[in-house]
Amino acid sequence: xxxxxxxxxxxxxxxxxxxxxxxxxxxxxxxxxxxxxxxxxxxxxxxxxxxxxxxxxxxxxxxxxxxxxxxxxxxxxxxxxxxxxxxxxxxxxxxxxxxxxxxxxxxxxxxxxxxxxxxxxxxxxxxxxxx
Length: 131
Hints:
CATH architecture: 3-Layer(aba) Sandwich
Structural class: alpha/beta
Order of helices and strands: EHEHEHEHEH
Number of strands: 5
């Protein structure tokens, strides 16, 4: 069975590395980006099965990255988990407005994150795509 591909867009190197290791140990193929522009480019080229997206990123912030992908018919089916330390209600509402599937606050419990990832990947598998 082919591994599911997850793109992590996170500017903090330690968080990016730790999350990548956790996901690889759980059996996922993981690609990473350290800023919003690189993340957007990799999302378009790699077409991952799911994206973990930080909000506070250099070049293009996470809200804009999410909006650009979710409002593009080629990429809008990719589940996006906003993955951030920003915990204000206004931030969460903005995440919903730009089309994020889930708003997840750091620090995180790996088992809770994995559960949400599996749920989103399962939901996206059930969708029938017309060729």
